[in-house]
Amino acid sequence: MQRDEQIFELIQAEKERQLHGIELIASENFVSPQVMEAAGSVLTNKYAEGYPGKRYYGGCEVVDEVEQIAIDRAKALFGAAYVNVQPHSGSQANTAVYHACLTPGDKILGFDLSHGGHLTHGSPVNFSGKLYNPVFYGVEQETGVLNYDKIQEIATKEQPKLIIAGASAYSRDIDFKRFRVIADSVGAILMADISHPAGMIAKGILNDPLPHCHIVTTTTHKTLRGPRGGMIMMGQDFENPFGIKLKNGNLRKMSSLLDSAVFPGNQGGPLEHIIAAKAIAFGEALTDDFLNYQLQVKHNASTMADALVAKGYNIISAGTDNHCMLIDLRNKNLSGKDAEQALVKADITVNKNMVPFDDKSPFVTSGIRLGVAAVTTRGLKEADMGAIVDLVDEVITNFEDDTVLAAVKEKVNAMMKDLPLFQ
Ligand code: PLP
């Protein structure tokens, strides 16, 4: 068959874009060659509805082994008693948890999207806000940090059935222990969504949700540096509190409800090529190299935040504990959209982002979100962060001047020229 040059040329163009630019999108990373190889392997040909040892298709002996290794490595990495590696994405992991724990109309308490939460935490444009009854907590206007007393007050007033702790754009460590006290006081299930900081949590650099939260979801492709995908975990299994019984009259375990919610509840065949890539990424994450990587991510992020603050940028919460930071650009007189577009012209990729108490629409926004997981994978260190901030600042200060943007682009390309995607 003829090679599809049209698509392969585009893939090559995207590779060049990734190689030559500075990638500051907080949810992105670069996977290792072996993760990439597994993701593009013959395992994509295999149907395997069900779970290892309990499939609805023949010929699953090999993928059974692959999936079991992925589960075992994830358990070892996070200290989890239960893991489901089948969710195709973070959103599908969250969907499955809601299916397992809620009925339509139930109240959920999540982090407001415009304050740093995720669409799937109850946004009205997402299934989570359409199917369920969402209420929100947010950050304090003065400090940009969560106020746990206020979250307790909201929970007491609203009596949610499920509370979601976790965010897409919150740069401070989360107190999962306190969240559990809040959840217990109203009899709610507590779910942590650690999609962003999962890699740092795995290596003990941030608070561990597993001992405190009933259920933990994550993506596998952000700081965890695996293929695009999702995962559900529990620190310990428990009998479901909804009275759902087995034929023998015993209560079904939560693990059984979650497995059923993923398949057949919410997905069909698992992506075994991606599960193989997840297994490899978890194996990489179990090494000391990965600990050093996460420590470097933390150092790079705090160095970048300090350099931005020194240049008069308003970082929500005035700094970062993790890999990311949210900048309110209102004192710089341009929107998040303007900044994103100007930075792209200089081969620096970020995303526009709502900031807490934003007065602009989600299509315009007052902020941008930056993260350092990807540039750290490419080998950049603390000393490079100041140079990146200088380039970002030059773009933002001259966002309407295409000559300056072209000159910055040359500097960006020179900086990234010899760095492979994965070091
Ligand atoms: N949860 C959080 C906190 C996220 O930040 C994201 C992605 O950005 C998701 C869930 C959804 O992940 P996916 O894009 O894989 O559906």
TrEMBL record:
Presence of the UniProt keyword Amino-acid biosynthesis in the record: yes
Which residues are involved in binding (6S)-5,6,7,8-tetrahydrofolate?
Answer: 113, 117-119, 361-363
Which residue numbers delimit the Serine hydroxymethyltransferase-like domain?
A: 2-391
Q: Which SUPFAM superfamilies match?
A: PLP-dependent transferases
- Amino-acid biosynthesis recorded as keyword: yes
Q: What does this protein do?
A: Catalyzes the reversible interconversion of serine and glycine with tetrahydrofolate (THF) serving as the one-carbon carrier. This reaction serves as the major source of one-carbon groups required for the biosynthesis of purines, thymidylate, methionine, and other important biomolecules. Also exhibits THF-independent aldolase activity toward beta-hydroxyamino acids, producing glycine and aldehydes, via a retro-aldol mechanism.
* The protein's name: Serine hydroxymethyltransferase
Q: Name the species this protein comes from.
A: Algibacter mikhailovii
Q: What is the lineage of its organism?
A: Bacteria, Pseudomonadati, Bacteroidota, Flavobacteriia, Flavobacteriales
